[in-house]
Design brief:
The structure is a single chain. With 313 residues, the chain is α/β, with parallel strands linked by helices. The chain has two domains: 162 residues, Rossmann fold (3-Layer(aba) Sandwich), CATH 3.40.50.720; 120 residues, Orthogonal Bundle (N-(1-d-carboxylethyl)-l-norvaline Dehydrogenase, domain 2). The chain is 46% helix and 12% strand. The two termini are 26 Å apart.
Length: 313
Amino acid sequence: MASKPGGAAARLGWIGIGRMGYPMAARLAKAGAEMAVYNRTRAKAEPLREVGASVVDTPAELAGREIVFTMVSTSEDLLAVTLGKDGLLSRPGQVPKIVIDCSTVSEEASAKLRAAAAERGAMMLAAPVSGNAKVVKAGKLSLVVSGPRPAYDRALPWLEKLGTGVAYVGEGELARIVKICHNVFLGVVIQSLVEITVLAEKAGVPRHAFLEFMNQSVMGSVFTRYKTPALVKLDFTTTFTPPLLRKDMDLGLAAAKGLNVPMPVAAAAREMVQALIGNGHLDDDFATLLLLQARNSGLILKPEAVAVADGLT
């Protein structure tokens, strides 16, 4: 069991038990942490009791924890659960030693939280992640981290329990721009992947055969492999919604504008994500871009009943 000096189990907190937060918090609980968790909809957090976690009613109740992780959807959500009424940092004189935010939020929101934490005597790490819930369960999540080096060194054993790769990139909000760049690339790659997949299929190549070749080529990646079953079987179980992808692409394009960096390919991909949303795909997986591309190409897709690997198992 992981522990602090003296043998006591580390007391960790977790805010945000969604698609990503649930398996991430579960990994830490299973690794031996004394976990307490909060979620706006309490019922979603209750199953974590089965792995030894306790459930609290407000984020403020986690203020006495050594390290508290947050994993929420938007910048507004992050500021609400930390600085809002009954937020994590709302109790005078009681704060965690370290706050670690794993969400994908703006640099401005992150900096605001960092300053507020420092004023109250807490250190903050920005630690956004790459992967989805299935990647978390497979133990292959990766994290990019920025903030005070002493906080990073202290939290590293727990960060490493969340996946296989942890990269420290420096002080301040540098991890935010890295993750925003990552998600802009995600939008570009999925749009490019669905375009060439539809092109190959319209020429007569089965999707599974085309993607098998791509995955074995120098162009294959962890991403193309774990998205292959969705594209082949048309199983768009949600891992990341189009509105969330649009949010991140907008953050990236805004950063590019501020830094005078032209991003024509990313801008075009962002408009396809917008078109997907405009066609009503609000809660589906972002890989439904395949359906939009096929429709725009005059192609009707059917699921292929072929066993394909996702590269994760």
